[in-house]
Amino acid sequence: FLGRRAWFVLHSFAAKYPDNPSESDKAAILGLIVAFGQLYPCKLCRSHLQQQLRDPELGPPRVGSREELTVWMCELHNIVNADLGKEQQDCNAFLVDLMYLKDCGECEVKKPTLEVGVEGEVMDPNYVGPWDAGIYGRGDNMLNSILTEGELWDARDLADLVDAMEVMKRWFRAFNKKEIKRMKEVLVKGGKEEREGMGKRLTEVVGKALEGMDKEGLWD
Fold this sequence. Notes:
The protein has 220 residues and is an all-alpha fold. It has two domains: 2-100, Four Helix Bundle (Hemerythrin (Met), subunit A) (Up-down Bundle), CATH 1.20.120; 133-212, no CATH class. It contains nine helices and two strands. It has a two-stranded antiparallel ribbon. The chain is elongated and about 60 Å long. The model has no long low-confidence stretch (mean pLDDT 82). It is an enzyme of class 1 (oxidoreductase).
């Protein structure tokens, strides 16, 4: 029962995957597939799935387009079916779409107490702010403090800088734990101005470090 439901979820995600996915889309679907391999509830099935995902004939998830992913997911399903002695599916993209490319209109729930948006979409007045899979996936509350697209762009750059600092700390002992902790606190809890200030300071520090490495001839 769990297996049938799980396959329906995976095929449905593939069917609704963008034709021209962004880098965030690609990372997100890879994360979903990895999560199934790492955390599938049935221990025996999980160990089998991990080996099936390693199958060299299947190859890594093809996330370049919706059609590629749809076919890849079907091929994975067929590997599992072969191991279970079950019938193979036809992985023609059109035929797979007939099974899983459904209208999601039934997912909408209309509540009279909330504002109704375009095309009948229910909009909770508390639902504000942009979405970013990468920042949400950091596992902290950083995304909660970002209210505009402009703030989101700045936060992405700052998060990349902080991650770079952590690598420099680990490899070169360039920063101590307190400094890294403070940077992360500003990322998560700081306001727009505080984040901007930290971004400028970090840019200066990294710039000086790169200049020093250049003087030492490390890029030659």
